Amino acid sequence: MHINDEQISMNQDEIVSCVTELLDGIDNNELSDLYEFKKYKYKHLVALFLSKNIISGGNELYRYVYRMVNDLACKTVNGKYKNNEKVKVCFLAISAAEWPAERLYKYLYNDERFEVKVIPVPLIGRDSEDRKRMYNQTYLFFSNEGYQVEKIYDTDTEEVRTWDDINWMPDIVVHVSPWYLDIVKCYQITELPLSVINIYISYGLSVAGLNNNKYEIQCQCDKEFMNLMWRVYTETPKNYNNFVQFQTLNACNVRYSGYCKMDYFYEEHKYDENYIRNMWKVPVGRDEKDFKKVIIAPHYTVGNTSLLKLSTFADNMFFWRFIAKKYSDKVLFVFKPHPNLRNNLIINGYMESVDEYDRYLDDLRKLNNFSVMEEADYLTLFDTSDAMITDSASFIGEYIYTGKPLLHLTRPEQQYNALGLELQKAHYHVSGKDYIGIDEFLYDVVISGNDTMKEIRKQVYLEELDYVEKNGKKAAQYIYDDIIDNLFKNA
pTM for this one? Predict the structure, then answer.
């Protein structure tokens, strides 16, 4: 199948048709029969969710059908186990930089009851060369790290292999992004049969918001995707409470597991000196301990076209060369942009092409104390750093797990939910246009060590983020246990 780059939502006729088919199937008891059940897809459940506000008793009807669907899907998986068949688990990955599930993958991969694969899927609705580059980098990451990975996208021909082409339909799909319309059509959740169990693990902390909880309702907690999942594993108590308050399912499918990606920081790690020198571009003949190591991590929401408006990069993109040169003998920098920054700079007119962005990155790479990290796992980068400068949403929470100082770059349009407002208390703040303020943070806090926010960061971490203390186990262990206890019960 040749890739279709157009993002297409269900139109009204499709919604009516799917709802009619689904309700007729329920009336004919087809959803009680495992054979007939499998011919229905999640697009039928999406259509019902999108129609619930115009159907009398729509919310109650949706909850009833949701329970029916997920009960049957669980019975299907349970039946495979009883018959000594492997349960097939697919992790649908979109980006190495947004991969949160390494430890859960290992739990399932090492359990002989499961057959596990990672399938990177190409994104649509973006520049073709950007998509190809991102996909190749992501596939290579998983391949080089030893995952069981399936390549379904040929970047030369733009051909995509479907589930039928790879002859492998999963029983469980682990999603790491709720933005299913951003991936190629044949791998969207709408195309999966209702017999497949769906699980969501977030690639980032949900900290941004809009007035009147609009973002939490429409884009997070009550997005149709979250109401399709068998399980949503959420990162903090505040995230869980948002689902209780705003979700149609009232959080019946949500569990507070903690943040799976952050399990990394509950472990001890040792790094080879050569590994650190290569990551941080330590000059030959110099000791890496002579330098402070600072991450610069811009968000992608430049301009005013995105629903969220967080990024300050348009105001400081050319400042980083200056500051790197000023501290070339004291500070090593890694530029860690959001994967969507390249595309958004072009859409909003700050750059004309992918080539211009690549030239920008190449100019940074030419500096003797500056590296660039794009599609890669960034946890080791966090762990080996001394500080971060960012306007990212999720990073203002994730970086707290390191215990190190962060400078948050602000703009007037930024808005945060209750969790985001609490996390903001742990950080230093200056406007993204305040070059002097950025410079002072580097010199006073990072180089000179005058970190006055250290104890506040620790308190915020304990109150908001320390899920191991609250649950008594790491997030991956919690999720694995929950899957086993609920899908294999009575088996």
Answer: 0.93
